[in-house]
Amino acid sequence: MFFSIKAHNYTKFLLMSVVTMAVSSDFFDCYAGTGAPSSSNSDKEIASDFLDSVSQNQQANKKEDVLSFSDIVGDNFIFSNEKGFKFSFSNLKGHVLVIAFSTTWCPNCPVVLKSLDVLKKKLLQQEIYNVGVITLNIGDEDIKAVKDHYAEYGIENLSAYESVAHANGIEGVPVCFVFDKEGKQAAKYLGWHDFASDDFIAFLKKLAAKKVNDYSSKKKGSTIGSGKVWKKMEVLKYGNPILKKKCAPVEVGDKEAPELLEQMLQQMYESDGVGLAAPQVGISKRMVVIDVRQEPAKVYKMINPKIVWKSEETAELIEGCLSVPGVYETVKRPASVSVEYLDETFKPCFIEKATGILAACLQHEIDHLDGKLYVDHLSRIKRARLISKYKKLQEQQEPISDNSGEGQQAQQQ
Ligand SMILES: [Zn+2]
What is the set of active-site residues? Predict the structure, then answer.
């Protein structure tokens, strides 16, 4: 299962100078450069003033200016949009993200928002699904006020998100960040930029085509708990027949099981998942590892897990799967389950009435052991849409294995 909770350890260049700043027009600049922007509602007037004056604002990508997303909004930020979708930044890993911050009172923001609106439309038209465009309002307006503000300027494709109360390290708006598929800042634009231009779309496509290094070179060959060397395991992808097979039970005392569980756990961490089932690494046996990164920390290594009770009450959660990378969908499952299993020493264990992410993760992983994927829980239409999106993503991903100089390339933009 792919539902990473922990904020990623992005490089934080600016930790020392990040200051929490209350958002107020008194000490919050509009990035317009010289020449006061018109406060008129006429986009054309705003644009001409604005566009003439902001070329000097391309101060993007100076190293000392690099902020991670969590630097700006904090580690536990949840995106919440008008359609009721909630997700964290780590849920978006694997996507290139264009994230802009704006306010409703800034006269220049609508110009940038409109450009991003056109960008979003073009991305959809070109069926580029692994690039997200998200605009966040800084202030205390509710979603409806943000939506109304968008409507006022004819912005049709951007979703309205719950406002961000505090933005650290952002001293003016509009400001737009591009984060690569690993969540690292690839570009930053203060003020105007033609986001709907072919050049900018080409830049995004280039970033989106980069293959994410799903395990770091540092960890290659690192020793695992048993003192043996951890080997990267191949995570099988959607369409592989092993994922459809019902797995055989593990015999009590199976000598290979404890080490396989440890290898699987390491692979799960490397792939940044919260759960992994043995068939996903080509082993058709009933074994699962789970760590949903909750406090207090608990790692589950499970042999022959079995759901022995489930609640009538259901819950919905956005799920993803390491075998269907890059796509996510809301899945409805029993809200709570109890599970019997053997641990890696073959000791019988019991999880009583797990809830939340753990409940969903247990069901997701145990489904894998019966040859079932989370997409099988979706309606036919939703599944078809998700799979076609997934296939498109796979096609768009170039098999680039050499990532050296990636940061440099991105920063040149
Ligand atoms: Zn899965």
Answer: 365
